[in-house]
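User: I'm designing a mutation panel for RNA polymerase sigma-70 factor, ECF subfamily and want to avoid disrupting the core. Could you give me a predicted structure to guide residue selection? Please restate the sequence first so the numbering is unambiguous.

Assistant: Good idea. Sequence first, for numbering, then the predicted structure tokens:
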Amino acid sequence: MGRNDKNAEAFYEHLCNQYFERIYSYCKRLVKGQAQFMDFVEDCTQNTFLEARKQISHLLKHPNVEGWLYTTARNLINKSYRSMYVKKRHEVMMDKNIANNLMEFDHELEDLFNSIVDLDSLCADILSQLNAHESDLYRDYYKNNMSISELAKKYDVSATAITTRIYRLKKKIKNFVYDHFKEN
């Protein structure tokens, strides 16, 4: 690893350690603490620091790194809101009979899927392919609902390292699921 890479990595760790909680709090304020938008807060905070990682060479020379982080976080929150509103705008309103018929059909499809696929064994099979560290992270984040901050403290790594690990874990699990259904 070259000297510039080490400087960039140290700078990035410094950014994460110094600003992660502030950016998280800022995102929380932007959604006005509404519980239904807390996913936006987590995702936008993680994505802000992932974007910072991508732009690290630019940020090393940037005159106002903190401002860049806040602006990026705000833009990501706004983008999430826009996506949500676009989805809602394209939702189709149906009368009660059509909605009930679709729900019944959906339940029938779900029953058919459940009769073909044993979800418990599928989950067990997919999760058994994870190594011990990934299994622990999966359990802590998805089952125990630990926050990024709590995970960072538990694993004694930066919040950004945790977000990167969670991203990679999600991707790995998605690939396992895709491969499973592709083969079967």
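For picking mutation sites, this is relevant: The two ends are 43 Å apart (CA to CA). DSSP finds nine helices and no strands in the chain.
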